Amino acid sequence: MNRSDLDEKIRNANTVVIKIGSARLSGSEEEVNDFLFQLVADVRHLRDQGKKVVVVSSGAIARGRKMSETLPAIVNAGDSLSEKQALAAMGQNRLVNLYDSFFSKVNLPIAQILFGVLDLETGEGFKNLKNTFRQLLDWGILPIVNENDSVATEELKFGDNDVLSAVVSLIVEADILVILTGVSGFLREGKTVSYLPEVGSEELANAGGPSGPGTGGMYTKLKAATILKEAGIPTGIIDGAEKNCVRRFLEENRLGTLVGGNGKNRSYSEEEIKSILQSKRNGGTSR
Ligand code: GLU
């Protein structure tokens, strides 16, 4: 598929998954509000065009941490598993309330979906999750997804929401995954690479780890794109601070880095998704 066919495919994407990293939601109140105003405008625009949208959002731990700073009973919450799980439990409802306050302004009802690797182990869990997504999207509800951090243990975690957003894209059979991050895309010699048809070992070796409050970094974003490549689903890695970035990426296709997506679209079976998770658990993607 040449680039202009690919651009066309992206413009016509029907189901769009948008992944939002913790950094986008943990700046000053003004920065966070600016970001959310742009986001809701873009999502409203996509929905008005008849597209289905799913948001995968990090930020539970970051918002829980912010809250902990105002509570005298908590002195310097650290990074142990139990502290992070407690912070996620504190922050998750605040995160979703924040989304609700913004999306309700443009009349988009939202729903929260939290799940973890274990929920996909059983066939029933997988089917229920898939059906819930389908029902919400049929009803025109916007699912906001995160990992169920308070119950996931270190060994059984997706680990980072980049991989989670790839799994969600496979489950809902998305046409594109758009990852909003704090950099302009994948960089080579300081320059943004606008199109990366394949992710090779050289790109992975040059991708950095997390630089902000999240857990992923460029490495896990490229890993997520690699998972989706086989399914023919392209991944956009774009700077979430750019105005109307989602809309501009989908319509103009000239923002950030577009990875893969030139294969034939095909849906993944439950077994295939599980085997991806299995290999992720054995090989690991975080660093
Ligand atoms: N699920 C975690 C949270 O909501 C974030 C994981 C990540 O940074 O990718 O805080």
TrEMBL record:
Q: Which residues cross the membrane?
A: none
Please list the residue ranges annotated as the Aspartate/glutamate/uridylate kinase domain: 14-238
Instruction: Mention one GO molecular function.
Output: glutamate 5-kinase activity
- The domain of life is Bacteria
Catalyses:
L-glutamate + ATP = L-glutamyl 5-phosphate + ADP
Annotated keywords: Amino-acid biosynthesis, ATP-binding, Cytoplasm, Kinase, Nucleotide-binding, Proline biosynthesis, Transferase
Record EC number: 2.7.2.11
InterPro entries in UniProt: AceGlu_kinase-like_sf, Asp/Glu/Uridylate_kinase, Glu/AcGlu_kinase, Glu_5kinase, Glu_5kinase/COase_Synthase, Glutamate_5-kinase_CS
For this chain's UniProt record, which GO biological process terms are given?
A: L-proline biosynthetic process
Main localization category = cytoplasm
> What functional role does this protein have?
Catalyzes the transfer of a phosphate group to glutamate to form L-glutamate 5-phosphate.
Family, similarity comment: Belongs to the glutamate 5-kinase family.
Family matches, as HAMAP family? ProB
* PANTHER family documented for this protein: GLUTAMATE 5-KINASE (PTHR43654), ISOPENTENYL PHOSPHATE KINASE (PTHR43654:SF1)
What this protein is called in its record is: Glutamate 5-kinase
Organism classification? Bacteria, Pseudomonadati, Spirochaetota, Spirochaetia, Leptospirales
